[in-house]
Amino acid sequence: GAGVSQSPSNKVTEKGKDVELRCDPISGHTALYWYRQSLGQGLEFLIYFQGNSAPDKSGLPSDRFSAERTGGSVSTLTIQRTQQEDSAVYLCASSVAPTGNYGYTFGSGTRLTVV
Amino acid sequence: AQKVTQAQTEISVVEKEDVTLDCVYETRDTTYYLFWYKQPPSGELVFLIRRNSFDEQNEISGRYSWNFQKSTSSFNFTITASQVVDSAVYFCALPSYNTDKLIFGTGTRLQVFP
After folding, report:
1. 3-state secondary structure chain B
2. What pLDDT band is residue A103 in, cutting at 50, 70 and 90?
3. Interchain pair B100, A99: CB under 8 A
4. B46 strand-pairing partners
5. Chain A closest CA to B15's CA: distance in Å?
6. Is B59's pLDDT higher than 90?
7. A26 CA to chain B: closest CA distance, Å?
């Protein structure tokens, strides 16, 4: 697609439920990144993909968080048993190569609210 | 280790004032890139500039200019004659040591009042 697409744009869920966040990167971008931005905070790295592999998962905050990427394209970030502290904007970005040197194109984010 | 520091949490100016956003970084790399992104109230981060450490010339794009000083590890961003539409959070970023991802500063919120 023309840009990075994320869905849903907003998600309200009850504490303890599982959620799935989707990211559709720019066509041809091999690298895909997930970041989290809590209210008024900076960007916290979660995980990145090169193709379908995740060489760096160091930012995932707990084992309730997981992500996958299929076909070198769409990625899904799953949060199990959501907690209130998971409330944040989840940002996806893609890049032509798995190097920060090229910078990223970001999606509009998914605003997750856990009530 | 790689680090980006944006010491200014929030800046408020009146329209038409000039404003400078500071960015100081630490890196183990001898050559590297630096970035600025803008996050308007809509939330989507917008790329503004990528700068190679080889080139220390100042860069100007309309009302925006960037001052890169390798000697002080700074990459400051100036908006001349600010406008209300410049109100946003601005992030400075640097690739991680193995360059596989970007490390972002904590951002500076700029509010421009009419």
Report:
1. CCEEECCCCEEEEECCCCEEECCEEECCCCCCEEEEEEECCCCCCEEEEEEECCCCCCEEECCEEEEEEHHHCEEEEEECCCCHHHCEEEEEEEECCCCCCEEECCCEEEEEEC
2. confident
3. yes
4. B38
5. 24
6. no
7. 15
| Nearest-CB residue to B43 (from A48, A101, A108) | A108
A56/B101 CB distance under 8 A: yes
Given a cut of 70, whether residue B24 has pLDDT beyond it is yes
Beta bridge partners of A34: A47, A92
In this prediction, residue A82 carries a pLDDT of: 98
pLDDT band at B99 (very low <50, low <70, confident <90, very high): low
With contacts defined as CB-CB under 8 Å, which chain B residues touch A5?
Answer: none
pLDDT tens, residue by residue, A38-89: 887 789 999 999 999 998 999 999 999 999 999 989 999 999 999 999 999 9
Cα B51 from chain centroid (whole Å): 11
In single-letter form, the type of residue at position B53 comes to S
DSSP letters, chain A, are --S-EEE-SEEEE-TT--EEEEEE--TT--EEEEEEE-TT---EEEEEEETTEEEE-TT--STTEEEEE-TTS-EEEEE-S--GGG-EEEEEEEESSSSGGG--EE---EEEEE-
